Every structure is written in C-alpha cells, then in structure tokens.
Amino acid sequence: MKKILVTVLCAFILSGLYAQQDQPDIFNLPEVYVDVTLQSQAQLQQLAHQFSVDKVMKKDGAYQVRIWLGPHDYQNFLNLGIKYTIYRPNTKWGELTMATTYEQMASWNKYPTYSVYCAMMDTFQTRFPSLCRVDTILAATPNSHSLLACYVGSNMDGHEQRPQFFYTSTMHGDEQTGFVMMLRLIDYLLNNYTTDAQVQHIMDNVDLWICPVENPDGMYARNDNSMGGSSWGGSGSTRANAHGVDLNRNYPEVGQPTKNYEPEIQGMMDFASQHHFVMSANLHGGAELYNFPWDLWTTNQVSHADLDWWWYMGRAFADTCHKYGSNGYFTEETNGVTPGGDWYVIDGSRQDYMNYYQHCREVTLEISEDKSPSGSQLPQFWTNLKHSLLNYIEECLNGFNGTVTDSITGEPLEAMVFIQNHDINYSEVYSHLPEGKYYRPIKSGTYTVTFSADGYVSKTVQVTTTDGTAQQIDVQLVPEGYVPDPGEAVELFASQQLLVYPDPVGNTMNVRVNGQWQNAEVLVYDASGRQVMRFNLTGENTMVEVSKLAKGTYFVQLRNSVTGEAKTLTVVKN
Predict the structure, then answer these.
(1) CB 204 within 8 A of CB 318
(2) Are 157 and 79 within one domain?
(3) pLDDT of residue 567 exceeding 80
(4) Domain that holds residue 291
(5) 422 and 548, same structural domain?
(6) Same domain, 132 and 179
C-alpha cells in the first residue's frame, strides 16, 4: 500500500494539474465527499486503490470523480495536493419524509423509521406464515440494530433443494432507494403469489432471501426516526458503519482472506456460508447501471470466466429497465452495463467475495443516481425496476443443473462441477447435500463438464445449453476401485433400480436392473440427441456390444412398456 501511495503522489505532483489547499473545517465531520477532476484512467485507478471512489463520470476527455473520505483518510488525501471541491448533496437530514406507522407505507412514497421497518418485517411473516419467515443475520450491530433477512417462498420446511437467490441493499447507509425497493419486493411477492404466474413460478421453484439493509447503523446514523442524504452538517445518514468503515471495502480481498472484519461483514459471511447461493445481487445508489465482476481487475487484466454470460445478463436487466422505466433511466457507461474494474478498481468488495469465495454469481446494481430521492419518486423507481428484479431471480433456474449421486447406493454426493477450458478463479460450482443438487447458470453453448468427488472416479460429459432454458444433467459417480459383479445382490440397486457399468464403458456395456425394469426397452442417444441404439433387456443383467459407438457422452434411457415410466442415465464411452 505504501508503494502505491508514493506512486499516486508522484503522479499527481508531476502532472502539475493540482494545487495544494488548506484543510477546511469540514474535515472535522465524521465523513465527507469530495469531487476531483482526473485526466486519465490510470490516475483514477491509482486513486481508487487508496480511497473509496463513489462515482465516476466521463466528460470532455476527463474523469469527474467523487471520493468518500472518512476521518482516517483526511490527511492522506490532503497530502496528495489534489484540487477538490466539497460535495454538498441535494437532500439533507430532515428532508426525507418518514413513515412513523406501518399504515403510512401503504403508498410506498415514504421511508420507514427503524421501528416501522422492524414492524414490516414481522408483519410479513405473521400475515404469510406459510410463505415467509425472518431470520437474523446479526442480532446487534455496534449501534444495537439488527441485520434481518426475509425468506420468501413455498419451501418453508426445506423439503426441496431449490436454487437459492439472495437480494441485499444499502451496505452504504446513505444509499437508501434500494432499501424501500427490497421491502416492496417482499410485499409484492407475498401479496401476488396466488394471482401472478411469474410470482408463483419464482416462489415455487426458488429459495429467495432478501436483506433490505446491510448497514442500518449508517442509514439511521443520527437516530432511528430519520434519514438524510449524507453526513453534510454531521447530522444525516452515513456511507460508513458505526466504526467509520466503508463496508464495500472490508470484505476479504481476492487471495487475501485474513483480516479483521466489521460485525456486519462477519454476519454476512457467516450467512452466505450457511447457504449455497446460486446468484445474488447487491443494490447501491449514486449511479444507474449493472456492475459485474471483477471489481479488483479490469477485463484486460483478468476477465471473469462467464464474461459472455455477464454481458448477456446485464443487457437483459438494463434493456428491461429501458422498456418499463422512465426516459433516460439506467443508461450510464455502456448503456447501463459495465465490468466493475473497467469502471474503477476496488479491493475488498462484496461482489468479488461472493463470486470468488462463495462460488456465487453476484452483481452490483446501481439503481438511482440520487442516493436519497424524495419519497414521491420512490413509486417510479419501482415501476422502473420491478420487471428486471423479478426476471433476474428466475435466471438462477437456467443453464444446466441436476443431481450427483453414488452409482451403487444412489446416495447424494458433494461434488465439484468444473467446465474444462472455461472455469477460472473459483468460477466452478458444487453439488450440495442433502440431495446432491447443483445449479450452473451459463451462456448458451456446448461445454465439456467434469464431475468429481473424493473417493470417486470423475466423469466428463458434454453439455449443450440454450439461453433462457434449463438443461437437466444428472450424474452418477462410480466409487474408486469398484468392480461390479453380475452376481451381486439385487438389493444393492434398490434405491435407483438400475445401473449402467462400467463407466466409462469400453467395448461392452452392462445394464443391471431389478423389479419392474427387467423387460424394459432401452434407447441410447448421443450428446446431440440422436438415437444410436435400441434394444430390450433380457433380465436382471444385459450385456450389449458398443464397440462401434464413437467416444463421447451418451444418454441411456429405459422405458417401461406397461407403466410408461422412463429413467435416464448418463454414460461415457472411451
């Protein structure tokens, strides 16, 4: 860090573009925003390594940059000798209309006090006990607030292993639009479950978690009954938490997981580790765009393995905002979409933590240029965002997914799902117990996927996906050293009723069954879906010649001529 600071200092001094300013009284405040003008992307990236960049706008070839400074930053910033102006927000403390009762939130044109917020969360689970519950991420922050997460869905007892999705907002306490949007999303889902087909599809197929505010200490910095646009005057909401820390710089840095974490960060990390989120999104304010990984690197340095998928997802989110939103909404950077590091590089972001350490696909949604718009504007933001927010949840169902099990016992397995010549920087996903389910969102294409688990022979299959759809790929892994004996007891296969072995197969393939499947018809398809073999079983164990089949992945489907039931297994031919 010291080396970077010296580099930045030299770059700014030698540029001759800045003049030293005396320290004003404003730096006695808990935090402050300053605006500076930079002449190059390199200067921006250097400055972003030292301070929390809040906003970047390109104008006339220069970069208009807003920087957040906490007390620990003031002297280092002043030492750079950069010419700056103090940013004075439009909305100050006392100018936001607060709802002091639950009923006053009915029109969604006010911000709730802390007690009303808690009452809303409690009312959601009280009114919809079969569709909603509130869990505590952190019981007490330094200023005695709670971090709450609302589960919304029809899987309250967890009897199905569904893909898990996580929406959160307001990790910067002065970015408050998303706070109300998340409360309204919970309310909308619960009240429209029986009448809206898309809502029902989401709640019947996704385990959705929503945390409306990650930094309540910053949002209610002055007291629990008011919010403000910033700390201007020392009386409003703050970007930082109670300890003066920017939470979006306090998550584990990529490759450097050990440091002291703020209570809110530790709570979120523990919560994420207790779940297996397939996708997540974190709502911010100060801009209007879809900011995808990585934050630490530019795409020229290190691009995400799923770069094409991120662009596809971002374009869909932004275009839907354009379709339903007000004119000019969500158009910053590349018409509302940007790789995070290409905008400006930061260390310790939540987005990078979730992607790198949790194998999740998290994005940063900057949803309002004005961080604290007046209450009267909040309904329009909901109109702008509703369809994009709902559509985005459903995307965790697409790509390919399935179950990984033991080929002998049928028991579910924890396995790595790794895409060859594609996955990098922990972009692989895993199947999880209790059912061995995995979910892999990905752009349309054909991929070579390897499934592996400790103590089992890895299996590689070809998978072809199409945008907006889901391909189910169930895989059975054979225990290492296992050699099937045709004379083994049929009970070994009772759980799944059939076994294709060996896997991978050579010149011959054995199909072992029990019960109703002994007279089934067998159809074999190649990876493109073309039927390449067809035969009938002749008893418990049937051996067939497959030497003429080309190397690759095949789908072996058994059809019961009496019941019409079908079962399909995947096998690899060497």
Answers:
(1) no
(2) no
(3) no
(4) 98-397
(5) no
(6) yes
Cβ neighbours for 192, distance < 8 A, ≥ 6 positions apart: 199
Where among 443, 477, 511 does a domain terminate?
A: 477
Distance CA 493, CA 514 (A): 7
Q: Regarding predicted confidence, which is higher, 163 or 26?
A: 163
Q: State the pTM of this model.
A: 0.82
Calculate mean pLDDT across residues 152-173: 96
Confidence of residue 573 (pLDDT cuts 50, 70, 90): confident
Is residue 288, in this structure, part of any structural domain at all? yes
Indicate if 414 and 298 belong to the same structural domain: no
Q: Name the residue type at position 312.
A: Y
- Per-residue pLDDT of 165-184, as tens digits, reads 999 999 999 999 999 999 99
Helix ranges, 51-136 (H): 74-79, 114-127
DSSP for 121-175? HHHHHHH-TTTEEEEEEES--TTS--EEEEEESS-TT--S---EEEEEE-SSTT-
Phi, psi dihedrals of residue 327, rounded to the nearest 5°: -60, 130
What tokens were used for 6?
């010296």
d(CA 535, CA 540): 14
Let me know: does 80 contact 8? Beta carbons within 8 Å: yes
Domain count, the chain: 4
Q: Is residue 93 part of a domain?
A: no
221-274 pLDDT per residue, tens: 989 999 876 545 445 799 999 999 999 999 998 877 767 899 999 999 999 999
Residue 179 included in any domain: yes
- With 0-12 / 13-18 / 19 or more C-beta atoms within 10 angstroms meaning exposed / middle / buried, residue 540 is middle
Instruction: Identify whether residues 66 and 144 lie together within a single domain.
Output: no
CA geometry: angle 485, 490, 494, nearest 5 deg: 125
Task: Say if residue 270 is in the same domain as residue 208.
Answer: yes
Task: Write down how long the chain is.
Answer: 574
In a domain, 556, yes or no: yes
Instruction: Provide the token pair at 247.
Output: 């939470």
182 and 106 housed in the same domain? yes
Structure tokens that stand for 443 in this block:
């752009």
For residue 226, the SS3 value is coil
Q: How confident is the model at residue 490 (pLDDT cuts 50, 70, 90)?
A: very low
pLDDT of residue 167: 98
